[in-house]
Amino acid sequence: MTQAHLAARAGVSRRWLSDLEAGKPTAEVGLVFKVLSALGLLVDVRPEPEPEIDLDAYLDSLGGGPQ
């Protein structure tokens, strides 16, 4: 797919799309979502799972493990 075709499909300018591909740091998130949608992509946002804590190792690191 060409930049021109994707830009038209997403409703953005080819220049804006080119800037996005080049890593434009100030790209509007709404326009980014339009481009992703035009590509048939889905963004899935979830909270990061809590890491499992090894309590014995944690207490050992504090010097408070079993004696």
From TrEMBL:
Pfam families attached to this UniProt entry: HTH_3 (PF01381)
InterPro entries membership: Cro/C1-type_HTH, Lambda_DNA-bd_dom_sf
Xref: CDD domains: HTH_XRE (cd00093)
Domain HTH cro/C1-type as annotated: residue spans: 1-46
Superkingdom of the organism of origin: Bacteria
Lineage: Bacteria, Bacillati, Actinomycetota, Actinomycetes, Micromonosporales
Protein name: Helix-turn-helix domain-containing protein
